[in-house]
TrEMBL record:
The keyword Membrane does not apply. The keyword NADP does not apply. It comes from the Bacteria. Keywords: Leucine-rich repeat, Repeat. Pfam families: LRR_1, LRR_4, LRR_6, LRR_8. This is Uncharacterized protein. The lineage of its organism: Bacteria, Fusobacteriati, Fusobacteriota, Fusobacteriia, Fusobacteriales. It comes from Psychrilyobacter piezotolerans.
């Protein structure tokens, strides 16, 4: 006779207890949805969230829930996307993020320091905008990171900062950065978009921007000079924003041939003489400068949109606009004569719209019907096809 003995094994399940009712309910609802999708029957309830079942959650969005602490986050071991924006998180000290996390959104919190924070190596997108971060000294971002948003913080210095070479997008707008001197982006072969708007940058001297950039925004700074700057190495750059600075001259500046959009409005530019605009430029924005004369200026052949509103231009004599121009704004200048108009528009071959409001000019301008159709905004000047 043989005796069979069965051993009873007691399984102890670990439960996560969350005091915050709104967060607890949110995690519970997220867990239920994940379980339903996988066809799993849960043993958890809102008050006892079993950690082995929390593995079902891969995405969590907890916006504006008053969250202050993240001591629960390491239990969501399979989490890939986490949105904790608009909460009250002041510190990330000691937080252990899941190793699986790829997207982390912490915008609009109260984070002041990143020192010692360990972001997971899997992270590709990190949003930290609208916090109170004052320094990046000693911060180690993961090598896998492709998008980093640090807009609207209190960062004043980038000296010695080592961003990961994997970055494709870097936003540093609306900070307190005063200098880029010596900043070297050599080796950043993946970076395509760099935003440095609304800082206090005075000079671009000795800055080495990456050749891979397609978009570079430097507007609303305190840049006074572009003298000697050579952008031609940025052979992929299509959009350059330098508006709302204190730039007086473009003399000697070398723009890349790839550039299609150039914003230079709200500066102190007085002349365009000797300026070499790139051949592929399609949109040029020069409103609110101090330009007085356009005579002899060579605009690129591919230019379609030209904004010269609110300058000090008095005449179009000696001006030749390019064939492909479609929109021209000369409003709020000091043009008081139609002399030179016919020649200025003689090469147009497409529908063309010109805005000339707020100029002391009256008269009739004839143009060849076969070349273009001109539509004008100014009750005191009449464009008539010949």
């Amino acid at each position: 006779m043989s005796l069979s003995i069965s051993k009873v094994v007691e399984i102890k399940w670990t439960a996560l207890m969350i005091d915050d009712e709104s967060l607890r309910d949110l995690i519970w609802e997220t867990l239920k949805a994940a379980a339903a999708e996988e066809g799993v029957t849960l043993s958890s309830n809102p008050y006892r969230l079993f950690t082995h079942e929390l593995m079902l959650i891969t995405k969590l969005t907890a916006i504006n829930k008053g969250i202050k602490k993240l001591n629960w986050i390491d239990h969501l071991v399979n989490l890939t996307e986490l949105n904790l924006s608009q909460n009250q998180i002041a510190s990330l000290d000691g937080v252990k993020f899941p190793d699986s996390l790829t997207t982390l959104d912490l915008n609009n919190n109260q984070i002041g320091n990143l020192e010692g924070v360990k972001f997971p190596n899997s992270l590709t997108e990190l949003n930290l905008k609208h916090n109170q971060i004052g320094s990046l000294d000693g911060i180690k971002f993961p090598d896998s990171l492709t998008t980093l948003d640090l807009n609207n913080n209190q960062i004043a210095n980038l000296d010695g900062m080592k961003f990961p070479h994997s970055l494709t997008t870097l936003h540093l707008n609306n900070n307190h950065i005063t200098s880029l001197e010596g900043l070297d982006f050599t080796g950043f072969d993946n970076l395509t978009a760099l935003g440095l708007n609304n800082n206090q940058i005075v000079s671009l001297e000795r800055v080495k921007f990456p050749h891979s950039l397609t978009t570079l925004h430097l507007f609303s700074n305190q840049i006074t000079s572009l003298e000697g700057l050579d952008f031609t190495g940025l052979h992929s750059l299509t959009a350059l924003g330098l508006n709302n600075n204190q730039i007086r001259s473009l003399e000697g500046v070398k723009f890349p041939h790839s550039l299609t959009t150039l914003h230079l409005f709200s500066n102190q530019i007085t002349s365009l003489k000797e300026v070499e605009f790139p051949h592929n430029l399609q949109s040029l924005d020069l409103l609110s400068n101090q330009i007085k004369n356009l005579e002899g200026i060579k605009f690129p052949d591919n230019l379609q949109n030209l904004d010269l509103l609110s300058n000090q231009i008095t005449s179009l004599e000696g001006v030749k606009f390019p064939d492909n121009l479609q929109n021209l704004d000369l409003s709020n200048n000091q043009i008081d004569t139609i002399a030179g108009f016919e020649k200025a528009f003689s090469k147009l071959n497409k529908f063309f719209r010109i805005c000339m409001n707020s100029n002391p000019i009256t008269g009739t301008v004839e143009y060849l019907r076969v070349t273009a159709k001109i539509e004008a905004d100014n009750p005191h000047i009449n464009f008539t096809p010949r």
